[in-house]
Fold this sequence. Notes:
The protein has 204 residues and is α/β, with parallel strands linked by helices. It has a single domain (5-203), classed as Alpha-Beta Barrel (TIM Barrel). It contains 9 helices and 7 strands, in the order αβαβαβαβαβαβαβαα.
Amino acid sequence: xxxxxxxxxxxxxxxxxxxxxxxxxxxxxxxxxxxxxxxxxxxxxxxxxxxxxxxxxxxxxxxxxxxxxxxxxxxxxxxxxxxxxxxxxxxxxxxxxxxxxxxxxxxxxxxxxxxxxxxxxxxxxxxxxxxxxxxxxxxxxxxxxxxxxxxxxxxxxxxxxxxxxxxxxxxxxxxxxxxxxxxxxxxxxxxxxxxxxxxxxxxx
Length: 204
């Protein structure tokens, strides 16, 4: 799951509460992506989320290796043009997760060669966070999965109705924002999505 407090009334306490509920529903990896916060605010939020999650899911921080290190987060998610994987590992040390967002087969191959632990592939479907941008579709996931051994996480417009398509195309999992954070019951929404993913794994 990826955070976006704008779908949680813009409130950091509400965001923490909704993330905690989602983790109870089965979310096992949370990417903290609140790009407009200052380093201090982001550090405070990271610490609050780590306390709330209490080891039931891993927490990675978007782009900010310094914040991830200071808070003791489990890793970092790098943009396609972000820090080199080697620089992130140098800051965070071995044993932490380093993910890379990719939008093409060459970018995926480069990230794998650089030592990334997993890739976030997108965008799969039309997404609120990328208005006006044509989605790459699950064909991108299929092409990357044929050329990459890393775990692949699909992102962009994921819902329970289309999540299985991502898994069938070679994805290991999905990253969701709105479908969970904006749901009346984030725990139930996460549980429903988790069941769909498990069903798709069984079929594949």
